[in-house]
Design a protein that fits this description.
18% strand, 60% helix, five-stranded mixed beta sheet, 231 residues, single chain, 6 helices, alpha+beta
Length: 231
């Protein structure tokens, strides 16, 4: 009630400030919780599906470990921050460094070090697993708090995000080690690296820009494929 009276006071005596406070209040206490609720419901579907893609395929987990090892070496030895990657069954893509030759050589080094038993190289603090855990945890916590409180609130959103970030950050290395990576990459063979391009349209024209460098891998038991390196 005091907040309503204060808002009415500003609306009457300082209209511009009153409308600004009203708009901010609607955004914080109505639109943000509603948007977060919609996002939470979406992540309850998306999160488990994203994790399942990794959990169900050992080749993806091996390439995930190799991707992490490559990024860790590039960051430690070359000081290249902000690199991102995505593991797949036939290799992994790396964005943020359009240099296939350097990435290929670093991936080979990462494979050798992982195969030699340097398993910590496969753990990365910015792994996408952390973000999936944070998003999924915040969604579950928000839904539970919503059921308990029985109403939307900005405080519920903040509490959910804070709790999820702590849980996700703490649990990510454990989840990576136990579930989403397989550092036993001794049977992986790196067959090449290529820059994959994407068309970008601007001012009525089209240009091709590097989207990622994809490092291809195969099992040692598979047929040998030709290496491809494209600058």
């Amino acid at each position: 009630m005091p907040l309503v009276l204060l808002l009415l006071f500003f609306l009457f005596f300082v209209p511009w400030l009153g409308f600004l406070i009203l708009a901010l209040s609607l955004f914080l206490f109505l639109l943000v919780p509603l948007g977060f609720a919609a996002r939470s419901l979406a992540w309850l579907v998306i999160g488990p599906r994203e994790l399942y893609k990794v959990l169900s395929d050992r080749r993806v987990r091996k390439n995930h470990a190799l991707e992490h090892g490559t990024i860790n070496i590039l960051e430690q030895q070359y000081g290249l921050p902000g690199l991102t990657g995505r593991a797949r069954e036939d290799g992994f893509g790396l964005s943020g460094l359009p240099n296939p030759q350097l990435i290929l050589e670093t991936a080979e080094l990462a494979r050798e070090r992982l195969a030699a038993g340097e398993t910590r190289l496969a753990i990365h603090r910015r792994c996408g697993t952390t973000m999936v855990l944070v998003n999924l945890s915040s969604s579950v916590i928000f839904i539970l708090l919503l059921v308990v409180a029985g109403r939307f609130s900005f405080g519920t959103v903040l509490l959910s995000l804070a709790a999820a970030w702590i849980i996700g950050t703490w649990a990510s290395p454990f989840v990576q080690r136990r579930l989403t990576i397989d550092s036993d990459v001794g049977d992986l063979v790196i067959t090449g690296a290529e820059a994959r391009l994407r068309p970008v349209r601007f001012f009525g024209g089209t240009a091709t820009l590097p989207a990622e460098v994809f490092v291809s891998t195969r099992s040692a038991a598979e047929p040998v494929l030709a290496e491809v390196v494209r600058p």
